[in-house]
Amino acid sequence: MTDNAFGNRPAIVIAYHSGFGHTATLASAVADGAHTEGADVTTVAVDTMTDADWVTLDSADAIIFGTATYMGNVSAGFQAFAEQTGRRCITGAWRDKVAAGFANSGAKSGDKLTALISLTVFAAQHHMHWVSLGLGPGWNSAAGSEHDLNRLGFWLGAGAQTDVDAGPEDVHPADIATCRHLGQRVAAVSAQLIAGRAASSAA
Ligand SMILES: Cc1cc2nc3c(=O)[nH]c(=O)nc-3n(C[C@H](O)[C@H](O)[C@H](O)COP(=O)(O)O)c2cc1C
Protein backbone atom coordinates (compact mmCIF):
# COMPACT_ATOMS: atom_id res chain seq x y z
CA MET A 1 0.00 0.00 0.00
CA THR A 2 1.43 3.38 -1.04
CA ASP A 3 0.59 6.74 0.45
CA ASN A 4 -1.92 8.93 -1.36
CA ALA A 5 -0.99 11.88 -3.60
CA PHE A 6 -0.47 14.06 -0.53
CA GLY A 7 1.96 11.64 1.09
CA ASN A 8 -0.16 11.12 4.17
CA ARG A 9 -2.24 8.21 5.43
CA PRO A 10 -5.56 9.25 6.98
CA ALA A 11 -6.75 7.10 9.88
CA ILE A 12 -10.34 6.15 9.11
CA VAL A 13 -12.74 4.15 11.26
CA ILE A 14 -15.91 2.51 9.95
CA ALA A 15 -18.26 2.41 12.97
CA TYR A 16 -21.39 0.41 12.21
CA HIS A 17 -24.24 -1.60 13.66
CA SER A 18 -25.62 -4.66 11.91
CA GLY A 19 -28.12 -7.10 13.40
CA PHE A 20 -28.06 -9.73 10.64
CA GLY A 21 -24.80 -9.05 8.78
CA HIS A 22 -26.03 -7.02 5.80
CA THR A 23 -24.70 -3.68 7.00
CA ALA A 24 -21.51 -5.47 8.08
CA THR A 25 -20.94 -6.48 4.44
CA LEU A 26 -21.38 -2.85 3.39
CA ALA A 27 -18.98 -1.70 6.13
CA SER A 28 -16.34 -4.00 4.62
CA ALA A 29 -16.93 -2.38 1.22
CA VAL A 30 -16.53 1.12 2.68
CA ALA A 31 -13.33 -0.03 4.38
CA ASP A 32 -12.02 -1.52 1.14
CA GLY A 33 -12.64 1.75 -0.71
CA ALA A 34 -10.87 3.85 1.91
CA HIS A 35 -7.96 1.41 1.96
CA THR A 36 -7.48 1.58 -1.81
CA GLU A 37 -7.28 5.36 -1.49
CA GLY A 38 -4.32 5.08 0.91
CA ALA A 39 -6.02 5.24 4.31
CA ASP A 40 -5.30 3.21 7.42
CA VAL A 41 -8.70 1.67 8.09
CA THR A 42 -10.25 0.05 11.16
CA THR A 43 -13.74 -1.44 11.19
CA VAL A 44 -15.60 -1.35 14.50
CA ALA A 45 -18.92 -3.04 15.35
CA VAL A 46 -20.43 -0.54 17.75
CA ASP A 47 -22.38 -3.12 19.76
CA THR A 48 -19.16 -4.82 20.87
CA MET A 49 -16.99 -1.79 21.67
CA THR A 50 -13.73 -2.41 23.52
CA ASP A 51 -11.55 0.15 25.28
CA ALA A 52 -9.14 -0.15 22.34
CA ASP A 53 -11.98 0.62 19.91
CA TRP A 54 -12.73 3.88 21.75
CA VAL A 55 -9.05 4.85 21.53
CA THR A 56 -9.10 4.10 17.81
CA LEU A 57 -12.20 6.26 17.32
CA ASP A 58 -10.75 9.12 19.36
CA SER A 59 -7.53 9.16 17.32
CA ALA A 60 -9.17 8.87 13.88
CA ASP A 61 -9.05 11.56 11.22
CA ALA A 62 -12.44 10.41 9.91
CA ILE A 63 -15.31 8.24 11.12
CA ILE A 64 -17.80 6.74 8.68
CA PHE A 65 -21.00 5.71 10.47
CA GLY A 66 -23.15 2.86 9.21
CA THR A 67 -26.47 1.51 10.41
CA ALA A 68 -29.27 -0.84 9.55
CA THR A 69 -32.65 0.85 9.30
CA TYR A 70 -34.96 -0.35 12.05
CA MET A 71 -38.41 1.15 12.48
CA GLY A 72 -37.60 3.96 10.05
CA ASN A 73 -34.45 5.16 11.80
CA VAL A 74 -31.02 4.06 12.99
CA SER A 75 -31.08 0.76 14.85
CA ALA A 76 -31.28 0.71 18.63
CA GLY A 77 -27.80 -0.79 18.59
CA PHE A 78 -26.43 2.23 16.76
CA GLN A 79 -28.33 4.69 18.95
CA ALA A 80 -27.02 3.01 22.11
CA PHE A 81 -23.51 3.65 20.80
CA ALA A 82 -24.41 7.26 19.93
CA GLU A 83 -25.63 7.85 23.48
CA GLN A 84 -22.39 6.42 24.86
CA THR A 85 -20.54 9.27 23.09
CA GLY A 86 -22.35 11.98 25.07
CA ARG A 87 -19.32 12.93 27.16
CA ARG A 88 -17.20 13.23 24.03
CA CYS A 89 -19.88 15.46 22.54
CA ILE A 90 -19.62 17.82 25.50
CA THR A 91 -15.81 17.90 25.51
CA GLY A 92 -15.56 18.22 21.72
CA ALA A 93 -13.35 15.13 21.49
CA TRP A 94 -14.35 14.51 17.87
CA ARG A 95 -14.51 18.16 16.79
CA ASP A 96 -13.35 18.75 13.19
CA LYS A 97 -12.96 15.09 12.33
CA VAL A 98 -14.39 14.13 8.94
CA ALA A 99 -17.70 12.20 9.00
CA ALA A 100 -19.90 10.37 6.51
CA GLY A 101 -22.51 7.65 6.61
CA PHE A 102 -24.37 4.78 5.03
CA ALA A 103 -27.68 3.11 5.78
CA ASN A 104 -29.22 -0.17 4.70
CA SER A 105 -32.87 -1.25 4.72
CA GLY A 106 -35.12 -4.12 3.69
CA ALA A 107 -37.48 -2.06 1.53
CA LYS A 108 -36.21 -0.14 -1.48
CA SER A 109 -36.74 3.15 0.30
CA GLY A 110 -37.55 1.79 3.74
CA ASP A 111 -37.46 5.33 5.19
CA LYS A 112 -33.68 5.05 5.47
CA LEU A 113 -33.26 8.73 4.61
CA THR A 114 -34.33 9.30 8.20
CA ALA A 115 -31.47 7.07 9.35
CA LEU A 116 -28.98 9.00 7.18
CA ILE A 117 -30.28 12.29 8.55
CA SER A 118 -29.88 10.95 12.10
CA LEU A 119 -26.26 10.06 11.34
CA THR A 120 -25.72 13.58 9.96
CA VAL A 121 -27.19 15.23 13.03
CA PHE A 122 -25.12 12.94 15.25
CA ALA A 123 -21.97 14.05 13.41
CA ALA A 124 -23.01 17.69 13.64
CA GLN A 125 -23.53 17.37 17.39
CA HIS A 126 -19.89 16.28 17.52
CA HIS A 127 -18.89 19.31 15.38
CA MET A 128 -17.63 17.00 12.63
CA HIS A 129 -17.35 17.81 8.89
CA TRP A 130 -19.95 15.78 6.95
CA VAL A 131 -18.94 14.47 3.51
CA SER A 132 -21.73 13.73 1.04
CA LEU A 133 -21.81 10.71 -1.27
CA GLY A 134 -20.59 12.70 -4.26
CA LEU A 135 -22.46 10.72 -6.91
CA GLY A 136 -25.38 11.58 -9.15
CA PRO A 137 -28.42 9.32 -8.96
CA GLY A 138 -28.37 6.03 -10.86
CA TRP A 139 -31.27 3.95 -12.24
CA ASN A 140 -33.30 7.08 -13.04
CA SER A 141 -33.64 6.86 -16.82
CA ALA A 142 -34.47 4.34 -19.54
CA ALA A 143 -30.73 3.75 -19.95
CA GLY A 144 -30.23 3.11 -16.25
CA SER A 145 -30.45 -0.13 -14.33
CA GLU A 146 -30.35 -1.53 -10.82
CA HIS A 147 -26.65 -2.14 -11.41
CA ASP A 148 -25.86 1.57 -11.52
CA LEU A 149 -23.71 3.19 -8.85
CA ASN A 150 -26.02 4.98 -6.38
CA ARG A 151 -28.93 2.99 -7.80
CA LEU A 152 -31.21 4.20 -5.00
CA GLY A 153 -30.44 7.88 -5.60
CA PHE A 154 -29.06 9.27 -2.35
CA TRP A 155 -26.94 12.39 -1.95
CA LEU A 156 -26.44 12.62 1.81
CA GLY A 157 -24.62 9.30 2.11
CA ALA A 158 -24.71 5.77 0.71
CA GLY A 159 -28.12 4.11 0.70
CA ALA A 160 -28.40 0.34 0.32
CA GLN A 161 -31.22 -2.18 0.19
CA THR A 162 -30.98 -5.85 1.04
CA ASP A 163 -33.89 -8.28 0.78
CA VAL A 164 -34.99 -9.34 4.23
CA ASP A 165 -34.58 -13.03 3.35
CA ALA A 166 -31.08 -12.55 1.88
CA GLY A 167 -27.85 -13.50 3.57
CA PRO A 168 -24.91 -11.14 4.17
CA GLU A 169 -23.26 -12.56 1.04
CA ASP A 170 -26.27 -11.51 -1.07
CA VAL A 171 -25.94 -7.75 -0.58
CA HIS A 172 -26.49 -6.05 -3.95
CA PRO A 173 -23.21 -5.55 -5.90
CA ALA A 174 -24.23 -2.00 -6.88
CA ASP A 175 -24.66 -1.11 -3.21
CA ILE A 176 -21.27 -2.64 -2.44
CA ALA A 177 -19.72 -0.53 -5.23
CA THR A 178 -21.51 2.58 -3.96
CA CYS A 179 -20.21 2.00 -0.44
CA ARG A 180 -16.71 1.40 -1.79
CA HIS A 181 -16.99 4.77 -3.54
CA LEU A 182 -17.99 6.43 -0.26
CA GLY A 183 -14.90 5.02 1.44
CA GLN A 184 -12.67 6.29 -1.36
CA ARG A 185 -14.24 9.73 -1.26
CA VAL A 186 -13.86 10.10 2.49
CA ALA A 187 -10.23 8.98 2.28
CA ALA A 188 -9.54 11.53 -0.46
CA VAL A 189 -11.24 14.38 1.41
CA SER A 190 -9.43 13.44 4.63
CA ALA A 191 -6.08 13.43 2.85
CA GLN A 192 -6.78 16.88 1.40
CA LEU A 193 -7.80 18.21 4.80
CA ILE A 194 -4.70 16.82 6.53
CA ALA A 195 -2.47 18.34 3.84
CA GLY A 196 -4.28 21.67 4.04
CA ARG A 197 -3.99 21.82 7.80
CA ALA A 198 -0.29 21.02 7.61
CA ALA A 199 0.22 23.75 5.01
CA SER A 200 -1.72 26.36 6.97
CA SER A 201 0.08 25.61 10.24
CA ALA A 202 3.45 25.85 8.42
CA ALA A 203 2.54 29.22 6.87
C1 LIG B 1 -36.72 -4.45 14.15
C2 LIG B 1 -36.56 -4.24 12.68
C3 LIG B 1 -37.06 -3.11 12.09
C4 LIG B 1 -36.92 -2.88 10.73
N1 LIG B 1 -37.38 -1.73 10.19
C5 LIG B 1 -37.23 -1.51 8.86
C6 LIG B 1 -37.68 -0.28 8.29
O1 LIG B 1 -38.17 0.62 8.95
N2 LIG B 1 -37.54 -0.13 6.95
C7 LIG B 1 -37.02 -1.13 6.15
O2 LIG B 1 -36.98 -0.97 4.96
N3 LIG B 1 -36.53 -2.27 6.69
C8 LIG B 1 -36.62 -2.47 8.03
N4 LIG B 1 -36.11 -3.61 8.58
C9 LIG B 1 -35.36 -4.54 7.72
C10 LIG B 1 -33.85 -4.30 7.84
O3 LIG B 1 -33.52 -2.94 7.60
C11 LIG B 1 -33.11 -5.15 6.83
O4 LIG B 1 -33.37 -6.51 7.08
C12 LIG B 1 -31.62 -4.89 6.85
O5 LIG B 1 -31.00 -5.53 5.75
C13 LIG B 1 -30.98 -5.37 8.14
O6 LIG B 1 -29.62 -5.04 8.13
P1 LIG B 1 -28.61 -5.78 9.09
O7 LIG B 1 -28.46 -7.22 8.62
O8 LIG B 1 -27.34 -5.05 8.96
O9 LIG B 1 -29.19 -5.70 10.47
C14 LIG B 1 -36.25 -3.85 9.94
C15 LIG B 1 -35.74 -5.00 10.54
C16 LIG B 1 -35.89 -5.19 11.89
C17 LIG B 1 -35.31 -6.43 12.52
From TrEMBL:
It holds the Pfam family FMN_red. This is Flavodoxin family protein. Coiled coil: none annotated. InterPro entries: Flavodoxin/NO_synth, Flavoprotein-like_sf, FMN_Rdtase-like_dom. GO terms for cellular component: membrane. One of its GO terms (molecular function) is FMN binding. Residues 12-160 form the Flavodoxin-like domain.
